[in-house]
Amino acid sequence: MKPFSLLLLVVSPLFIVVNAWPNIRDAPSTTVDIQDGQTGTLMVLPPRQTDTGTKRVPDSDHPFVAPGPNDMRGPAMNTLANHGYISRNGITSFEEIIRGTGEAFNIDPLMASGMAALNLLTRGNPFVDKISIGGVSPLIPPLPGQIDGPETQGITKHGRVEGDASMTRSDVHIGDNRNFNQTLWDMDLEQLAKFGDDGPDGPATVFNLQTLIELKRQNLESDQVLDPEFAIPIRRLNAVFGTTKQATKRIISSFFMNQTFPENWFRAAAPVLGSSIPGEIAAALPQWVPGHNDANGVFVADPQPPAPFNISSGCANYWDTLVNAVPGTLADVTGIFKQNVDMLNGILFNASGCSEPIAPAGPTNI
Ligand SMILES: *[C@@H]1O[C@H](CO)[C@@H](O)[C@H](O)[C@H]1NC(C)=O
Ligand SMILES: *[C@@H]1O[C@H](CO)[C@@H](O)[C@H](O)[C@H]1NC(C)=O
Ligand SMILES: *[C@@H]1O[C@H](CO)[C@@H](O)[C@H](O)[C@H]1NC(C)=O
Ligand SMILES: *[C@@H]1O[C@H](CO)[C@@H](O)[C@H](O)[C@H]1NC(C)=O
């Protein structure tokens, strides 16, 4: 059967990682850095996987185990955690995200490191190199000195990366933004029934470009009306459009509803590094620019980023992320904390197309 990549499961909302990888850090730091009673962990880009072709996933080392009551789960990465491609407790790290998404989905480390960097900088503790794929966890301390408030949130927390107009989760101001919403999925499936291609599982079961355009249009239109505080800043709009190659109803349903790999599933045949689909969806929906509802529920466009950050959508996205979603207190950290923050920011900057980097400047404790 044809391998499908499933970026949307990790990209939008966004993601996490593996205790199946015994020693992820190949170059442990010799410098010990203790801040506020926490021991820093220097992040290291893991080496590329040597096997980069397709293969059956999961393998026998990664059986499905339903999460226990203390395991974190959230809007994304649940399948990876249920199979141990990231830690089954839902507390993961920079390296685990890269390894886990590479192993299970063949996501290229360049792309995975961008996703990991975004999540660690906005909702993790990048000093100890930990992030929760759900909510607040006793296993992750607040940032040293509590410079982003008394708790480290997880990726479920609304406002920085987690946002509106998801395909299967409600806006936080409408309902439950963490768990799968059958009503939303049924609405998506109506678009699939109208626009989908025929495939091995039957008529109108394959998500083609037109289906993705129509269901994103519907997600955006419906949430703009229902959610008084609807907001899609550029960093969120990019994530909403950030979907992937063709996939089928059977495959996507298995990930969304059962949070497991579909039967007989094979990962992508080559490392996955972005796709033209988000750009094609954006081009088909030109009325959906970055913006938010005003006090009267009228959708208004956000201001453009200042020059020189307005040169491209990628650069505008980087600007929005650093200025509005990465806590500004991260600009003043020291030691291993600073080395990690600088590396994560460098990853985002390198992918941005901007001509100059930006220091973190976002609000704290939100
Ligand atoms: C699911 O989505 C529908 C449609 O937006 C909404 O009316 C409902 O409140 C949502 N349910 C939950 C539990 O969030
Ligand atoms: C979910 O799992 C159940 C039990 O194994 C199965 O019957 C059902 O077909 C699965 N649903 C999807 C969408 O994969
Ligand atoms: C960026 O902003 C500057 C200053 O407002 C403006 O002159 C320039 O045309 C803008 N560039 C783009 C590509 O929009
Ligand atoms: C960013 O790109 C520069 C130039 O290619 C490279 O030297 C640097 O290591 C990259 N930074 C990160 C964090 O990947």
UniProtKB/TrEMBL annotation:
This is Chloroperoxidase. GO terms for molecular function: metal ion binding; peroxidase activity. Residues 47-73 are annotated as: Disordered. Keywords: Heme, Iron, Metal-binding, Oxidoreductase, Peroxidase, Signal. Its cofactor is heme b. Residues 1-20 form the signal peptide. Residues 60-283 form the Heme haloperoxidase family profile domain. It comes from Mycena albidolilacea.
